[in-house]
Amino acid sequence: MAEHESPEFGKADFVLLDSVAMPEFMANLKLRFEKGRIYTYIGEVVVSVNPYRAMNIYGRDTIELYKGRELYERPPHLFAIADAAYKAMKRRNKDTCIVISGESGAGKTEASKYIMQYIAAITNPNQRAEVERVKNMLLKSNCVLEAFGNAKTNRNDNSSRFGKYMDINFDFKGDPIGGHINNYLLEKSRVIFQQNGERSFHSFYQLIKGAPDSLLRSLHIQKDPTAYSYIRVGGQMKSSINDGADFKAVADAMKVIGFTGDEIQTVYKILATILHLVILTFGVDGDVTLIENKKLVSVMRELLSTKEENVEKALLYRTVATGRDVIEKQHTAQEASYGRDALAKAMYERLFCWIVGRINDIIEVKNYDARVHGKNTVIGVLDIYGFEIFQNNSFEQFCINYCNEKLQQLFIQLVLKQEQEEYQREGIPWKHIDYFNNQIIVDLVEQQHKGIFSVLDEACMNVGKVTDEVFLQGLNGKLSKHAHFTSRKLSPTDKSLEFDRDFRLRHYAGDVVYSVVGFIDKNKDTLFQDFKRLLYNSSNPVMKVMWPEGKLSITEVTKRPLTAATLFKNSMISLVENLASKEPYYVRCIKPNDVKSPLLFEEERCRHQVEYLGLLENVRVRRAGFAYRQTYPRFLQRYKMISEFTWPNHDLPSDKDAVSRLLQGCGFDHDVAYGKTKVFIRTPRTLFSLEEQRAEMVQRIVLFLQKEIPVSTAARLQRQPASEARSRVSGPRGFITNLMIQQGRKQINFNMQHYSGRTFLPITPIQIVVPLILTSFLRSRLATTIRAVKAVGSDKVMGRKCRAEGWRGCIRKGNEGKDRVRKWNTRGLPHRGNLRGQAGAFFPPVLFSCSLSRWSFICRPHSCNVTLNKQFLLKLDGIKGCVELKISPLSQVTGVSVSPGKDQLVVFHTKDSRDLVVCLQGMVPASESRIGELVGALLSHFKSEKRRLQVNVASPIQCSMNGRKCTVVVEPRINQSRPDFTKSRSGYILAVPGN
């Protein structure tokens, strides 16, 4: 299973436990948490424990460790599951999704952000501007949504108070081209009420504490959150949240995403209006209801861009249509306060939905035609609220816990139930494993006519005054015999329940007591039509868009709007259907304690979560089952080159017999089982061995194909003009070679993962040969470097530290043509004539060539190219083509000095004391090191001329610039985005990006 971890850290995969029992499971989970190993596998499920501290395991180096690796080749990590989902999407052209679940405070939101970060980092190798734009907006959208949808709760300082499902769309090359966000059930009641110790949404505090004084004055807002009762309690709390810094970050993110200045100002105006609503009070003068602080009406009129009399009228009166007549009914003070609070909640919800919609408008895939661009595939990431049990559980907690029931049922169906059913379907011996099936609870909530949602909707549609007690009576009548429902009327001796107020549900995660107070109002979600018309008639176009139904006249007949419960139920059913249509990957998050301590592991608390997440049952299924399964044709498609009986095609009676013969030949027959349509492999180790044998055979096949077109021909044609090469080569080989000349100088990624299919590659034959021709040429050049370095002794060139840094990556045995495809930058170099333009001369063969960004030369910022041939060391203009900026005869070069670090600093020493200093770091691709290749090329050439080249590995490096002795020092800097040279007293400083 998971490799590369010492036994002192426990089992990296729970499947490897000696016995599958709760004590052993908890002991392993606790040990790994205490040792700083917060991730553990259960097969292909990642169990994540919130560490409650920053951990240095998400940087670029870690990303590179997991990029392109199989799931079990590295220690457990979120990046592994993200890479597995990405590879499945790219290899099999299939939609995937990552479902992140767990209770509030378990780290779901952070997990989703790290997964997004990884997917963004591993895509787009060519740094195309459009793809970078999409990736940046997808990441920035998280910042904005957290500000308006997250809040500090007693369990979590950054708790998501809405559900979010994000689809990331990829083109046929695997680059992100857009996305779409769905939001579910924003907890809008938090706008006007928060439980003790909690805050309202972050956006309010960010505005008050982070906005400049000029903005606050224009909004008529005080820089004191305690002045506004909706957020007063949260404003008095001490918190580690930096609202001031977050305000600036959110404002910058909105600009990057594409919000206009007017749109951002409208967002601030709506937040300010909600804050002013809270301090709006009503009084009574006889039978007339009055607004006590009328100055606020003028302020709200300004913020809402409407008329003052319309604002006052909407707050104090309600327009009612009775047949053909329209009358205005004045509110009582209580009704006016209710309408004020309903308006505040509705405005915030509409604002949030508009922000999500605006982000979708910007990031959605545009002008994409599958017939032209290929199939559009998707990776979905679900970050949705966790199971909640509070002291007072209301309608919001009921919906949230129902959502978790649906997701748990999906997990049971896809991971446990389908696993067992597949073995039974395939005829594989299987011992049945019992598990808790919570479909009975899902039906209890959503079943037509009998479920809790149906009873709630029926109560809301009753004529006359409807109360929460009426709703509870309906539940008692229809669910009195249900094993998972009870109330005080049904259990008179249960004093933990209040008469006519509470009911208890037995969820998969435990028993929860709900108070029916507020269920009716929250479900009806009543907002007077007068407010909708008021905001629709605003002169602010953004605000007008948020309230489209305001255009309806009061006399227009409209359908009864769907209740909040029905809307949420429909969205959950749609979400689960969407997830079920994709290949799922799971992250199960666990909260180790309630005090947010990085050291405390509350075993009883964690055991409860392990039980309701079904993790132990998952381990039992994996232990009894197989790690990998695949249909026989697909298995042969990938591994048939391993066996002589199956390559290139077998003549056995069936694919099943061919797979059996292949595995017998490899000695793995004891670790597999043969189903009706699939082969099952028990341990991942067998799969790794198959992959290694396949990779070795693919390399041999590549070498065989390379012999079809000689290396000398490819190398000669690479140096010849295209027109001349076409005239000399004809026939099928000429057609291939001409195509190479047209395309060969473009960077072609030679990816071993693409080798699958009955015809060796699932692409046309010409697409096979072109990269192989280029690879053949590059390998011949690299082989020269390898022989040179070996001839003089690589240890003389590279010290122990250098080898550790990966300089020998270019001379690994058997790895020259597979992993290291060079992009030889000879574009723009003359094929006839020397550098001075003299006709008839021949340009010497290139030994080494490398494009350098403008920052690569001291005090001469310019896009350049460094080229080494058999006669000259050239510095060429990168913009004007072959125009030389500096030319030094190679006979003048006496030695070369290189830095031992990753910075790739190189100094060419010359006889005339005019040394050339360059930095190769940052070349395309950015992660490559060219030092070994450069030194090898120089050593080989000097040896052929029977000259001695002095090679030094030092830091700092001593050099001569125009005859003056100086020193070049390398300094890593955290805020440095790319290498850059600056002057110092003793010479120069090369500032490179730090860790």
UniProtKB/TrEMBL annotation:
Residues 572-594 are annotated as: Actin-binding. Residues 804-994 form the TH1 domain. Keywords: Actin-binding, ATP-binding, Calmodulin-binding, Cell projection, Cytoplasm, Motor protein, Myosin, Nucleotide-binding, Repeat, Transport. Signal peptide: none annotated. One of its GO terms (molecular function) is ATP binding. Transmembrane segments: none annotated. It is found in: Cell projection, Dendrite; Cytoplasm, Cell cortex. InterPro entries: Kinesin_motor_dom_sf, Myosin_head_motor_dom-like, Myosin_TH1, MYSc_Myo1, P-loop_NTPase. It comes from the Eukaryota. ATP binds at residues 102-109. PANTHER family: MYOSIN, UNCONVENTIONAL MYOSIN-ID. Belongs to the TRAFAC class myosin-kinesin ATPase superfamily. Myosin family. This is Myosin 1D.
